[in-house]
Design brief:
Layout: H1 2-14, H2 21-41, E1 43-47, E2 61-66, E3 90-95, E4 98-109, E5 114-118, E6 121-124, E7 127-128, H3 143-146, H4 161-166, E8 171-172, E9 175-177, E10 182-186, H5 196-199, E11 202-203, E12 207-217, H6 230-247
Antiparallel strand pairs: 1-2, 2-12, 3-4, 3-12, 4-10, 5-6, 5-9, 6-7, 8-9, 10-11
Length: 258
């Protein structure tokens, strides 16, 4: 009996103490703060407003953008996985001249690159590019758009005034030369994209980050981003609530963006 009592007492002493309510709340608070820190300083949610990146990204895709990997490397945090922007990277950035407007395009020219479009086919440093992601949704031919920059823009081509004035000084031998700390970016939907052909280079400081994956995708009208009134936004939100199940593109959930 004495041995059994000793075993029982030893078992009671070795039992793990229960977590108190205060400790549980503190643990959840630490987790919440950690997640908030990650989202605030590393991730940013972004909705795709137009079809310029189809079929890589569709109108209504919602992505998480990694704000750290392409950021300038600070001396005080050398261990994070920073890297230089490369050709083929999809980036989210502030549109040059319109700092409040976010755009998403693919980087096709980095500093020092010479590039041109010939009948819609991209050449970089004299090499024809194999762009399996590109679509030509309109299928028509536009001289400035498809033979850039060899063909001068017409007055009706939608260039910004600043780019119209600066374009010629960046052209050498019928090719565009990308200057330092700048990038040339275009949409994958090459026929239907207002991109660097129309407003110029993306400055390095305008780059926000790169999309990581689609966390949600919803069937969205192409002109939805133009509807900015309060009543339009309420109607849009109501449509999401009513059609969340049947108009969510479930097959695109957690799709990695490349």
């Amino acid at each position: 009996m004495k041995n059994k009592s000793a075993v029982k007492r030893n078992g009671q002493n070795s039992a793990k103490p229960k977590e108190t309510t205060v400790e549980a709340v503190a643990a959840y608070a630490v987790l919440a703060v950690t997640l908030l820190f990650i989202i605030t300083f590393n991730l940013q949610a972004f909705a795709i407003p137009s079809g310029s990146m189809e079929n890589t990204l569709l109108v209504g895709d919602h992505v998480f953008v990694n704000r750290i990997s392409l950021a300038p490397r600070p001396s005080w945090m050398p261990l994070l996985p920073y890297r230089e922007i490369r050709r083929g990277d999809i980036i989210v950035f502030y549109k040059p001249g319109e700092p409040g407007l976010h755009l998403v395009k693919r980087v096709l020219g980095v500093p020092g690159d010479h590039l041109r479009l010939q009948h819609g086919v991209l050449y970089v440093n004299g090499n024809r590019q194999s762009e399996t992601y590109v679509i030509h949704s309109l299928g028509n031919y536009e001289p400035y758009r498809d033979d850039f920059p060899a063909v001068a823009p017409e007055t009706y081509d939608p260039l910004t005034p600043k780019w119209r004035a600066e374009l010629e000084q960046h052209v050498q031998g019928g090719e565009l030369v990308v200057p330092a700390n700048s990038y040339f970016a275009m949409g994958d939907n090459r026929d239907n994209s207002l991109d660097s052909r129309y407003w110029g280079f993306v400055p390095r400081e305008n780059v926000i980050g790169t999309p990581m994956f689609i966390y949600w995708s919803f069937e969205t009208p192409r002109d939805d981003y133009l509807k900015t009134s309060v009543s339009d936004r309420i109607k849009s939100a109501a449509n999401v609530v009513v059609h969340f199940v049947d108009e969510t593109r479930w097959g695109r959930m957690f799709h990695v963006v490349r």
